[in-house]
Amino acid sequence: MEIEAWQSLVHVCRRWRRVVFGSPRCLNLRLVCTPKTPARDTLDVWPALPLLIRSFMAPSGVDNIIVALGQSNRVCQVGLALADRQMEKVFTAMQVPFPELTDLRLTSYGETPPVVPDSFLGGSASHLRIFGLFGIPFPGLPKLLLSATHLVELYLSKIPHSGYFSPEAMAALLSILSSLQTLRLEFQSPQSRPDWANRRPPPSKRSAIPALDRFRFKGVIEYLEDLVTFIDAPQLDDLVVELFNQIDFDGPRLAQFISRTPTFGACDKARVEFGDTHVSVGLHYYRGPDRSPPLLIRTPCYERDRQLSSVVQICDSCLPFLSRVENLYIQEYFISELVWKIDAIDNTLWLELLLPFRAVKNLYLSEDFTSGIATALGELVGTEVLPSLQKILVEEIEPSGPLEVFQENIGQFIAARQLSGHSITISVWNRSRHTAFSPVP
After folding, report:
1. 278-284 and 295-300 as β-strands: parallel, antiparallel, unpaired?
2. Judging by DSSP bridges, how do beta strands 130-134 and 153-159 pair with one another?
């Protein structure tokens, strides 16, 4: 039912009006205020009900919103997407306590978003359950949210460098938020990084975030490395990490954090996906046909050899449990237009990618990668790479050059394994029957 549907009922008759207004809390009655709402008239006509304040790109100004924000003791939800100057007016109006506020989401879509002042909300947010800032700097955020002990969802996206806060400050905040279930922490640029010259040693005791089950991170690996050093998330079953394009993806502390998270140890599938602009590796176990992988790490990258070397580093440094994976998929995204040239890729990189997957029984290859991986495997001596492999499943290959290269090289690999007492079969992979990981928002 629409939030304001009750307004039609009170006009039916006096009896209905008494019934509706007689139980405002039971019926969850609320008033919605937008830039087009004549706020002064609305607030005078209706009883003193809780207020929901909403706006998305208000070209007509925010005067009515400011009037509604003046009723700070009644405001329970605020969701605003405004230009920079409009957001400044909102910040000015919100420097007093909002004792009933439970849901606050602010988005600035200008070039120079204003900084949230330390006096925001009067320095306290004790009833907040959902809080989101999108493209808005707020260096004092950890201090404010220390009072938000009932917070369930925290969304911090496109954090400008002017709003940077340290991993230690964020970890201290998370240690207080015992009810937090969803965390999105996404920086706008790789400028937002900790000072590793003065890096502290790992703490003797970590803080557990008992309810956290969903975590999205975007930033440099150094920040994430420091953050996860201070925390544990025993209930986490949905982790998406997007790392800025870097030369070095050294993540031993991230690997330790993942290894301390029970859900990820149950993953028996891995999928390496190459796109036009990024590469990713995800760990998966069956959670239903429409569920995304519980663990996904990706990084933006355009060059094909750089994509491969990046995912090799991520697998080698950031991801434990790869030695338990039994099904490995190497493929391009369905909508990808990338072209892989066999002679442009160092074959040893393919072998390095495959090396951690010691338990893989089934290797799934999409057409773009069959020739390159077959060439690398054909040059292999010994069984240190994919020692448990039983089946290679490939998409249908055009019966021209790529098929001949694949058959010749994979034949050498299969023959060598047979000599060591291991038989490997080749099958056709009908990729359309295997649901791809759902895209991550």
Report:
1. antiparallel
2. parallel
The three-state DSSP-derived secondary structure of 189-256 is: CCCCCCCHHHCCCCCCCCEECCCCCEEEEEECHHHHHHHHHCEECCCCCCEEEEECCCCCCCCHHHHH
The answer to whether residue 438 scores a pLDDT higher than 60 is no
C-alpha closest to that of 124 among 152, 92, 153, 94: 94
How distant, in Å, are the alpha carbons of 327, 355, 379, 406, 432 from that of 409? 22, 18, 8, 5, 26
Domain spans, the chain: 267-441
User: Are the CB atoms for 128 and 102 separated by under 8 Å?
Assistant: yes
pLDDT tens-place string over residues 210-230:
999 999 999 999 999 999 999
156-187 as b/e: b if 16+ CB within 10 A: bbbbbeebbbebbebbebbebbeebbbbbbeb
Residue 334, amino acid: F
Question: What is the pTM (predicted TM-score) of this model?
Answer: 0.87
| Token output for 336 | 């990808």
Residue 381 confidence (pLDDT): 76
Side chain identity at residue 344, one-letter code: A
CA–CA gap between residue 341 and residue 368 (Å, rounded): 9
Question: pLDDT confidence of 155, banded at 50, 70, 90?
Answer: very high
Rounded distance between C-alpha atoms, residue 206 and residue 13, angstroms: 61
Q: Looking up tokens 């299969």, which residue turns up?
A: 414
| Region 277-298 average pLDDT | 85
The mean pLDDT of 92-118, rounded to a whole number, is 93
- Across all residues in the chain, what is the average pLDDT? 84
